Amino acid sequence: MNIMVENIVEALSEHLEQDQISINQTIRELHGKDESYHSISLPDVVVFPRSATDVSNIMKTASRLKVPVVPFGRGTSLEGHVIPYENGITIDFSLMDKILEIRENDLLVKVQPGVTRTQLNKELKKYGLFFSVDPGADATLGGMAATNASGTTTVKYGVMRDQVRDLEVVLADGTIMHTGNLAAKSASGFHLNGLFVGSEGTLGCFTELTLKVYGIPEFTTAARATFPTVKNAVEAVTSILQAGIPIARVELVDESSIRQVNHFSETDYAEKPTLFLEFHGNEAGLTQDVEFTQEIVKDHGCDDIQFETDNTARTKLWDARHNLAYAYIHGNVGKKMMVTDVCVPISELADAVIFARQELDAIGLTGGLTGHVGDGNFHALLMIDMNNPEEVLKAQNYNEKIVLYALERKGTCTGEHGVGVGKQKYQAAEHGEALRIMEKIKVALDPLNILNPNKIVKLESDGG
Amino acid sequence: MNIMVENIVEALSEHLEQDQISINQTIRELHGKDESYHSISLPDVVVFPRSATDVSNIMKTASRLKVPVVPFGRGTSLEGHVIPYENGITIDFSLMDKILEIRENDLLVKVQPGVTRTQLNKELKKYGLFFSVDPGADATLGGMAATNASGTTTVKYGVMRDQVRDLEVVLADGTIMHTGNLAAKSASGFHLNGLFVGSEGTLGCFTELTLKVYGIPEFTTAARATFPTVKNAVEAVTSILQAGIPIARVELVDESSIRQVNHFSETDYAEKPTLFLEFHGNEAGLTQDVEFTQEIVKDHGCDDIQFETDNTARTKLWDARHNLAYAYIHGNVGKKMMVTDVCVPISELADAVIFARQELDAIGLTGGLTGHVGDGNFHALLMIDMNNPEEVLKAQNYNEKIVLYALERKGTCTGEHGVGVGKQKYQAAEHGEALRIMEKIKVALDPLNILNPNKIVKLESDGG
């Protein structure tokens, strides 16, 4: 333990209990990576706050010592967001995992940042409510807010940012503030909720979140539809959206990915581009939506569509989609998954998916395409051997090609995974002059550059 | 014309045509007020840009001369947003009124800031599309984005901020940048769309907006329901929302306001608290929604509910709501309207409306209550004689009482009208430490404080 770490621990001990501070190697290793392929880097110290006051004291200490700080939920980020490349302090929010208040009449909940989405949904179910955002991982709500997470229901219910009514935030200097209020809308002051959501720990640490929740829909119908080509499938989605059908989920899984699922799960799904759909509403409305959707998909060459309304049958119908990442990961032991994450305007989606498929075939790596196609967001899942530099390079070049394709069409380099370190090199190309404004905001709010430094924006003179 | 104004005009003339610059007294007077009761103050010069380049040149000139700049749409703001209390240059966007692009497949439009919402909707109708945000006035879309406007459809479609996919913004120093992209979602960088929407001209001037539009609903049903008390009416709304009925509009008009409409329009609506409702969707779904709604409102004591589906009949059914402000203004010639605008958590709404009514009765001014009750946002419309200092003071005290009531219940001082100068005194109480962050952002983006100075945030050292 070098002298600097000793200083940090000593300073932290003034306000925290001994069991809230760890320099244990295993603990540090657990906080030195996320679920991505990005390289590992360990924090010097991991702290476990129990309250906003604890976090405020940690930030005051970090400011005084000019030590970098990384907030950490469950480490499920996919672009290296939580990896402390400058070392320093990692704040693990696992002890702040209480659901503080359920305001049924306001359709709001107040939670601590360490609550996970499944933990919240389990509790909400007792009230006939649910929280809508469903990224792949069982992430913490603090982490989901920090990365503006989204998922399969975004096409109907919106992204994480749309669900955040208020955040309690601890700023770089330890100040505790609130970004919003409990009203359903407000025209008062700058939109700090929106600014802090998606800031990836670079502007502040969240210590409390007030989130929108929804009544569990009266009626749910799921569907699975196969198409001769990806283009047919995507064009069917465009038509469904154009028709104003308030679809709750619409996911594409390509032919290769269905093949991977069949291979891994010993199933026999038709190996064709497949759409997985879900509809939420009242029974009569859904019946009409489903009829209309059937007509639309048939017009786009759909060769088979199956519907289910019963809960168990719906889950089974969607199995291939649910098992997709699992089938790739467990079907390619020893390899790491790299996931592209662009989002394009819907009108560009069919061509973008075809381009991504062709380029993937050209490089010859194992992988497939899936997407939240109602939003124009799709992923290529690539399985790569990290010890094979050629494969790594191929995958990186592929990712870059997909990003540049999306940016040329006024899309974004990341639809839902965030910037972290992986998408930082595209920030200038994507945002242009706006990146200067982001840098100015970062400097104004974190002048010492101690909050998750070098994520999203990279300041020239690094004070961290 | 004093020498300073001469200097400004001369400098502006380097880049603009003579007919784009006016120091005419009548023109200046038209830009010295909005639709509120706030006092008048004239700009020194009014300019009429035709392009982002024009606006950039204006901002460069203003920066060089350190002259305040106020962007101006149609002057329909309600809290003095566009009144140039520091004089200087007003940028009138009326020449930038083109609809630039309609991307049907993406459900997006690109417009210049001077396009009004009815102008846009007239054009969109040809494509079976509509733009959802409907504040009372036929405001410009640039102004609506600057104030984060909302209206009767917000309960279903969201506020202005929810519709903005990208803004072209001219910053204080003349830099032109974009805040977003055309993808339906993004996790890339800080959320500048959200920050600039609602910034009321204090962070930049909008020169182009890309906005979400919607397909005109297949089927629309309108309803009007009367209740014995305001409490019954509001509680019925809470139950409708709780039940997950995707209501598109739900407006409350109180007894006194219906009386005012009857008196002015020679109608004979039942003088009772009244809800005006609208449902958008497919026919079967709406039929079921309407049945369910009928049950709910009956449970809350509704004594009469009428439905209409035909377009003309629906408009007639809603007449009393549409004519409300008109009935007050034209029924009280010589008086000015002051409008309160708080928004509270839905669970607090019934009590808040009752409190507002009781306090209004207590001060004895003419006025009534109306509200976008699905959002918890309600207005008291007060008719005041601006030459009677006692009435003005009464109205101001009343407004303050309503604001403080809302803030105590974690609501906001303004649900949709914005801060301008009228709600500035409540910013500290509402935002606390967060106001310091807003100030830091303002200083970082507009260090000379020339962009609509002293609106939203008031900086201690005023460089404007």
C-alpha Rg of chain A (nearest Å):
23 Å
Could you tell me the CATH topology label of the largest domain in chain A.
Answer: Uridine Diphospho-n-acetylenolpyruvylglucosamine Reductase, domain 3
Helix content range of the residues of chain A, please? 25-40%
Domains counted in the coordinates of chain A: how many?
4
Strand order of the largest sheet of chain A: 15-12-14-13-17-18-16
- Which CATH architecture of the largest domain in chain A? 2-Layer Sandwich
Q: Decide which structural class fits the backbone of chain A.
A: alpha+beta
CATH class of the largest domain in chain A: Alpha Beta
Instruction: Please report the distance between the alpha carbons of the first and last residues of chain A.
Output: 20 Å
Give start-end ranges of low-pLDDT stretches of chain A: none
Indicate the mean pLDDT of chain A: 95
Protein name (chains A, B): D-lactate dehydrogenase (cytochrome)
Organism (chains A, B): Psychrobacillus faecigallinarum
EC number (chains A, B): 1.1.2.4
Cofactor (chains A, B): FAD
Task: Tell me what you see in this structure.
2 copies of one chain form a homodimer. The first copy, chain A, has 464 residues and is α+β, with helices and mostly antiparallel strands. Chain A folds into 4 domains: 92 residues, Uridine Diphospho-n-acetylenolpyruvylglucosamine Reductase, domain 2 (2-Layer Sandwich), CATH 3.30.43.10; 117 residues, Uridine Diphospho-n-acetylenolpyruvylglucosamine Reductase, domain 3, CATH 3.30.465.10; 107 residues, Alpha-Beta Plaits, CATH 3.30.70; 77 residues, Alpha-Beta Plaits (2-Layer Sandwich). Helix content of chain A is 37%, strand content 19%. Chain A has 18 helices and 18 strands. A 7-stranded antiparallel β-sheet of chain A has the order 15-12-14-13-17-18-16, sandwiched between helices. The mean pLDDT of chain A is 95. Chains A, B: It comes from Psychrobacillus faecigallinarum. Chains A, B: Its EC number is 1.1.2.4.
